[in-house]
Amino acid sequence: MAEGKRLICGGLVAVLCGGAAAADALCSDPVLPAGDAAYGAYLAGSCRSCHGAGDPGAIPAIAGMTREDFAAALIGYRCGRRTHAGMQGVARSLGPREIAALAAYFATGAED
Question: What is the mean pLDDT of residues 89-97?
Answer without folding.
Answer: 93
